[in-house]
Amino acid sequence: MSATLVSIRDLWVSFDGHAALRGVDLDIAPGEAVGLVGESGCGKSVTWLAALGLLPVKAAVSGQVLLDGQDLRTLKPAALDAIRGRRVAMIFQDPASSLNPVHRVGRQVVEALRLHRGLDGAAARAEARRLFDLVGIPDAGRRLDAFAHELSGGQNQRVMIAMALAGEPELLVADEPTTALDATIQAQILDLLRRLQAETGMALVLISHDLGVVADLCSRVGVMYGGRIVEEAPTATLFAAPVHPYTQGLLAALPDMTGPRRRLTAIAGGVPEPWNFPPGCSFAPRCMSATSACDAALPAARDVGDGHSVACLHAHVPEPVRAVVPA
Amino acid sequence: MLRFLALRLVRAALTIALVVTFAFVVLRLSGDPAVIIMSPEAPAEAIAAFRKAWGLDQPIWIQYINYFGAILHGELGQSMRDGRPAIALVLERIPATLALTLPAFALKLCLGIPAGIQAALHRNSLTDRLVMAGAVAGFTVPSFVLGLLLVLLFAVTLGWLPSGGQDGWRSGILPVITLGLGGAGILARFTRSAMLEVLGQHYIRTASAKGVPWRAVVRNHALPNAAIPTVTVIGFMVGSLIAGAVVVESVFSWPGVGRLLIVAVANRDLAVVQCILLMVAGTMVTANFAVDLLYGLLDPRLRGAR
Question: Which of B197, B202, B206, B302 to mutate to test the interface with A (most CBs of A within 10 A)?
Fold first, then answer.
C-alpha cells in the first residue's frame, strides 16, 4: 500500500443528537481516484464536509482527519483556511447556487489564486483565463466577466472546477458534480475530471449515488449505508464479487447491458432515518441474512483480502442462514 | 434601461397626483376652512368674503381643477392663515426637521446594521438574544411613549438634558434617540434575517471550501448579498426623512415640518398641507427610485430584467 494522503479515522457526526456518520474510516492515497457511493442521506457528502470543517456549527463532529499526519480537526481556523482550496479542494452538486451571484465568476477564481498562489492583477487574470481554457470554457476571456446566472449549469460546474484547480490541490473532492446536469453535459464533466486527474496527478474523491459514474472513473469504491462505509474494494472486485448484502442488493438492482432480460430486484424496505438508526448494523432491518447478533453492535470492518474490506458479520456466509424480512 | 426610467417616472408622477388628490378630498370633506380659520362665531358676511377670496365658493370640482392646474404650474398656493406662500412656510421648517431626522437616520444605520450582523453571526447566542430583545422593544414601544420615558428619566429625574424646545444641540439629543432607536430595531431585525438567509447559501460554503478566511467570507461574500433586502428598508427610512418625525416633534415641541403639518391640518390650511404632502410623496418616490437603481447595482441578476 502506497503512502496515504488523507486518512479519515473513526469520524462521527451528529445533528441535534441524531447520528449522521457512525465511525467512518477511509484512506486516500496520492493520485488515486476513490468513489463513494450510497443513497442520499447515507453520509457520503457529510463525511467530506465534516473532514473539511464545512458543516454548520450545530453539527457535533468527532474523530480524526489526518493530512500528512496532521489532524485537520484540531487545526486553528487560519491553518485550516491555508489547506482548504490549497491542498484539498471541493466542488459541489449544484454549481449555479455554489457560485456567488453578485460577483463575476472570474473574480471568484482570482480570489482563490490570490489566497493560495499570491497572484494579483493582470497575472491573476491571465492565470484564471488559462484555467478557464483548461476546463474547456469557450471564449474564456469574456466568460471571466460573466455572472453565474449568465452561464449554463455545465459552464458553472467548469467554473467551479477551475476555481478548485486554482490552488493546485493534491486532492479534489467532487460531491455529486454531475447530479444537477443533463446526461450529455454529465459525460463531458466526467471526462474533464478524468483528464484533469491524469494531467495534474491529483487524487480524486468522487461522491455519487450513481454506480456507473463511479465505476467509470474510480479505481477503488467505498459503499456507504446508514452513516458507515459498509464495503470497500477495488472497483473491479466490488462489481464482480460484492460481499456485503447491501452492495449485492444494489448491483442486483442494476440492469445488465448483456445477457437475457431479467426482472430487476429492489431491496425491500427503506433507508432508516437518522433518528431511527438501529443500534447495530444499519442495514440489518432490510437484510436477508440478519441475525440477532447484527442488532447488538455496529459490525467492524473486516479485511477479506486484496484491499477488500466489509463491515458485515455474515459476509462470508455463502448462503443466508435464515431470512428475516420485517413486515 | 431608458424604458425602465420612463416607466418609473410615469409611475412616480401618478403616485404624486394620487397623493395630492387624496389629500384634497379628505381635507375638504372633513371641514370648512373658512369656518375653522375665521372661527364659527364670525359674521356670515366675513366668512362669505373669505370663501370668495380663496375660491371656496366655487363647486368643489372647479376648485380641484384650479388647484391641480396651479400645482402643475409650480404654484403651491398661499397659507389661508397668514397669506404667506405655503412653500416658504414649509421650507423654513425643513432644516429643523432634518436636524432631527438626519442624525436619527445615522443612528439607525450605525446601530441597527452592525447589531443585526453580529446577531446573525452568533445566532442563538446571548448577543443574539439581547440584540433581538432590544430590537423588538425598540420598534414595538411607540415613539411618544419612549420619548416621554426618556424625558422623565433624563430631563425630569436626572436633569441632564432639556425636555423640549429647540435650544442648542443638547435639546436635540433626546428626540434623535427617540427617533433612532425604533428604526435601529427594525433595521437590526431585517439585517439579521437577511444575513441568516445568505449565510445558509451554498456559495458561502464554496467560499469557505476554497480557503477564504471567515471574516473575508462575511465581508466579501455574505454582506454584499445581504445588502440587497436591507436596502429596501433603508429606502423607506430615507423616504421618511421629511415627515417621519411628526409625533416626536410634538412630544418635544420641536418646530419642524411635523408640527407645522399638525397645525395646518387642524386649521384645514389646505395649501400648507398639500405642500407638505407633496414633499413627503416626492421624497418617498425619489427614495424608492434610488432603491430600484441600487438593486441593479447590487444584484447583477436584476440588470437583465429591465
Answer: B206
